[in-house]
């Protein structure tokens, strides 16, 4: 599962589509965590798609990740500022790849 303390245990190494990327990143095999309020561990995501289907405010968008061992697309928290903290995505992800900091 995604480390809920990732902002302490990882370094911010990049930005993507207006959100942070937390390393380590070594493309294409290692992609890190995208987002901060809504964080998706790209190295765990298997492109199940439940988060895209269930998020009531369309926070997630697919991004292509060719060459990643788990899946060749990932749920990117492209609109994390719109999140209403319903926690549906956290509940439905089969591999616990999503952390929402509702604090
Ligand atoms: Fe969308 Fe709810 Fe997840 Fe926020 S917590 S990203 S609103 S499903
Ligand atoms: Fe990936 Fe989990 Fe969404 S596997 S596509 S983050 S439901
Ligand atoms: Zn991203």
Question: How does this structure look, described?
Answer:
By secondary structure, the chain is α+β, with helices and mostly antiparallel strands. The protein has a single domain, classed as Alpha-Beta Plaits, CATH 3.30.70.20. The chain has 3 helices and 7 strands; from the N terminus they run H-E-E-E-E-H-E-E-H-E. It has a 5-stranded antiparallel β-sheet with strand order 1-2-3-4-7, with no helix packed on it. The chain has a two-stranded antiparallel sheet with strand order 5-6. The longest helix is centred in the middle third of the chain and has 5 residues. The model has no long low-confidence stretch (mean pLDDT 97). The site of iron/sulfur cluster has 14 residues, from helix 3.
Quick structural summary:
The chain is 14% helix and 25% strand. With 103 residues, it is an alpha+beta fold.
The total of beta strands comes to 7
Low-confidence stretches: none
How many strands, what sense, and barrel or not for the largest sheet? 5 strands, antiparallel
What's the average pLDDT? 97
CATH architecture: 2-Layer Sandwich
Contiguous helical run count: 3
């Amino acid at each position: 599962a995604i480390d809920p303390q990732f902002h302490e245990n990882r370094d911010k190494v990049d930005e993507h589509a207006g959100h942070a990327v937390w390393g380590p990143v070594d493309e294409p095999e290692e992609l890190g965590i995208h987002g901060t309020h809504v964080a998706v561990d790209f190295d765990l995501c298997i492109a199940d798609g439940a988060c895209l289907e269930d998020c009531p405010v369309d926070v997630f968008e697919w991004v292509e990740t060719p060459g990643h061992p788990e899946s060749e697309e990932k749920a990117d928290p492209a609109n994390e500022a719109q999140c209403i903290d319903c926690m549906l995505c956290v509940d439905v992800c089969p591999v616990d790849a999503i952390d929402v900091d509702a604090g």
